[in-house]
Amino acid sequence: MTSKNGSTAESMRHESDDDHEGSASLSSIHAADNEHNDFTGEDYEPWLFQTMLNELSERELGVGFIYAILDLFAERHGLSDVAVVLVNETFGTQMFRLGGTAVTPDMAAHLSASPGVYCEPDHVPLAECDAIRTACQLAMSLHLARFSAAHDPLTNIANRRSFDEALEIAAARSARYGWAFTLVLVDLNNFKLVNDRSGHEYGNHLLRQFGFALRQAVRQGDMAARIGGDEFAVILSNAEGHESSGFTERLRGHLASLGNPVEFTIGTATSPRDSTDPGELLRLADGRLYEKKGIRIS
After folding, report:
1. How many domains does the chain have?
2. Which residue in 104, 147, 263, 281 has the most C-beta neighbors within 10 A?
3. Do both 143 and 215 map to the same domain?
4. What is the largest CA-CA distance in the chain?
5. Which residues lie below 8 Å from residue 159, measured CB to CB, with a gap of 6+?
6. Is 193 in the same domain as 233?
7. Domain presence at residue 28
8. Tens of pLDDT along 160-212?
9. Tens-place pLDDT, residues 236-247
10. Beta bridge partners of 96
11. Is residue 8 in a domain?
12. Whole-prediction pTM
């Protein structure tokens, strides 16, 4: 059997009704018949081009675009199910299924055989499936490029540039509407000694764990970022200042559950109470952090 990109893949079988009650599944992957390769009069190119233009007027070229294209593709051909398998060097194999439906482990084992578009029923011309896969691959590549540009590659939380932009926006809203937020600067204690004694590989492992713990400790609407080698920052939305203690407790709890021995010190500044200027907020939070460490800065 072949997928719509011409690569070998096994037929997918329905599991029992008890296992898949209430959920659709791709039951088979058929080879493209010769009659499907006669594209005379096919209008998929103008359809796909116009569809992409329409979607791009409403959303960015990214994951949301992929699901939208699959929805319209299924409607165009009367498909009960469709999935696209994409491959990226950084994130490996990615699978997207009609309507955002979960890909079951059994299905994933079959679909991971090769990248391509898998349809149920399988009556879509090869060229159109290939065009859909190419459009989805482009959308995925651009999505990952935007993600990489905005995130720290080691911890996968926001990077300094993203943090600076978010702080500017939060400060402007605070100045205009009086919306409160608290800036929390986090500095890892004696982390240089950890690197010197245990090596950078172990140090990077601890940093990755710390980034993960930060993501778990913040609430929806908050932002966590890595702004330096062992320096992190958090923007706590709708926070008057006392919320930082709850955040600190959550962070320590998540670190303990990971077995991460890193200790840290925080410094905070709250807008609009302390200032609505991003630079001043950073200066105040940094000063309070070093004051807790017993270090005087001029």
Report:
1. 2
2. 281
3. no
4. 79
5. 150, 151, 152, 225, 226, 227
6. yes
7. no
8. 999 999 999 999 999 999 999 999 999 999 999 998 999 999 999 999 999 99
9. 999 998 888 999
10. 84
11. no
12. 0.71
